[in-house]
Amino acid sequence: MGKVVMNASVSVDGFIAAENDDPGPIFEWLVSGEVPLDDGGVLQVSQASYDHVRPYWDEIAVTIAGRHAFDITDGWDGTPPSGIDHVVVVSHRGAPEGWDLQAPFHFVNGIEAALATARDLAGDRTVEVAAGDVGGQFLAAGLVDEVRMDVAPVVFGSGKRYFGSVDAQHLLDGPDVVVQGNRVLHLRYQVRR
Questions:
Q1: How far apart are CA 151 and CA 162, in angstroms?
Q2: How far is CA 105 from the centre of its chain?
Q3: What CATH number is given to the structural domain containing 124?
Q4: Measured on CA atoms in the order 71, 10, 147, 49, is the torsion positive or negative?
Q5: Cβ(75)–Cβ(96) under 8 Å?
Q6: How many domains does the chain have?
């Protein structure tokens, strides 16, 4: 069984977007280099970021996201982001009307059902959980093995928190990886059990 990793780009003060869901400049690092990160060549990062991010992206089989993320991205137009095989959407509602039911998206109610579905789909590969409210629920339930953060040099002051509404202390080990790229610091922590 693969590991469960919580991941997102984040401001230095711990936000993944402003209150209006605008990520602002936290994704500048994805277009601040000369090394193509994706097949389309849209994302261009530093060599250090590529060496850190590309192997991670290649090990992810499934991303778990909340319905809000699904809605604000228009469901990634039915194509999972970053070449990932499947997206599991945590939602009390099913697929939107007119949704292509052949698209590799799975709508489930609750984090336990999301993780069970994701693990079935992922096999021994990594399950990624998007940071924010859903990611915070996974962390609070003790379901996250690793926390990865791509820290951008911006201060939001307020907004959507990386760990969502987590209100209890959780200990992490490390960081066991610290990589400096252009406009980003990549961090990886193991969740202490």
A1: 11
A2: 16
A3: 3.40.430.10
A4: positive
A5: yes
A6: 1
7 in Cβ contact with 177 (< 8 Å): no
Of the candidates 57, 10, 4, 64, the residue with the CA atom closest to the CA atom of residue 186: 10
Range of the domain at 144: 4-191
What distance in Å separates the CA atoms of residue 1 and residue 39, rounded to the nearest whole number? 28
**C-alpha angle with apex 79: 133 to 58, nearest 5 degrees?**
80
pLDDT in tens, 48-90: 999 999 999 999 999 999 999 999 999 999 989 888 999 999 9
DSSP bridge partners of 187 = 149, 178
For every residue of 103-162, DSSP letters joined together read SSEEEESSHHHHHHHHHHHHTTSEEEEETTHHHHHHHHTT--SEEEEEEES---SSSEET
Q: If we measure between CA atoms, which residue out of 68, 59, 105, 113 comes closest to residue 86?
A: 105
**Cβ atoms 17, 164 nearer than 8 A:** no
Q: Count of CB atoms within 10 A of residue 100's CB?
A: 11
Is the entire prediction scored with pTM above 0.85? yes
